[in-house]
Prior knowledge:
By secondary structure, the protein is α/β, with parallel strands linked by helices. It has one domain (3-144): Flavodoxin domain (Rossmann fold, 3-Layer(aba) Sandwich), CATH 3.40.50.360. The protein has helices at 14-25, 60-67, 92-100, 133-144, and strands spanning 3-8, 28-32, 46-54, 57-58, 75-82, 104-112. Strands 1, 2, 3, 4, 5 and 6 form a six-stranded mixed beta sheet that branches. Helix 1 (14-25) links the parallel strand 1 (3-8) and strand 2 (28-32). Helix 1 (14-25) crosses helix 4 (133-144) and helix 2 packs parallel to helix 3 (92-100). It is globular. Bound molecules: flavin mononucleotide. Flavin mononucleotide binds next to helix 1, strand 3 and strand 5.
Amino acid sequence: MKTAIVYYSQHHGNTKKLLDAIAAGHDVTLIDVTRNPAPNLSHYDRIGLASGIYFSDVAKQITAFARGPLPAGKEVFFLGTCGASPTESFFKNLRKITDSKGCRFLGQYICTGYDTFGPFKLVGGLRKGHPDAAEIRAAVEFYAGL
Ligand SMILES: Cc1cc2nc3c(=O)[nH]c(=O)nc-3n(C[C@H](O)[C@H](O)[C@H](O)COP(=O)(O)O)c2cc1C
């Protein structure tokens, strides 16, 4: 099962921490969408989309990848980190896009991530130390269980 994960992790690299832990134990290709916004993933079976949450949604670069270069009909899964309470509804717009492309949804994982956006910076940030070891482990378990 050839797997790639296309990701956007620019705030503190929080989401990338989950991906590095997954890639440490699994054969998976990580693709930074800011460096390669239009990779050809036609030869992959499963495609993960991973992002920090910005304004209650995934990064617009991930949305653009899903709308455009993501090949139709692939198996997909989502990973993310957020400063607020993790809710899977942050992925709802992304899910609509992948459903509309006939992709088979395998599951999603989201946990907290260090957040110093705007006023949170003044108070030392939210979710300091996150994702923590337990959250990273849970992400790896999520991936292993796909
Ligand atoms: C511009 C901006 C907007 C954000 N908006 C939200 C939001 O709407 N909801 C939320 O829970 N977290 C929000 N966050 C916090 C990030 O989702 C969180 O820090 C995440 O772990 C960042 O992931 P990254 O380090 O992989 O980019 C925001 C952060 C930034 C910088």
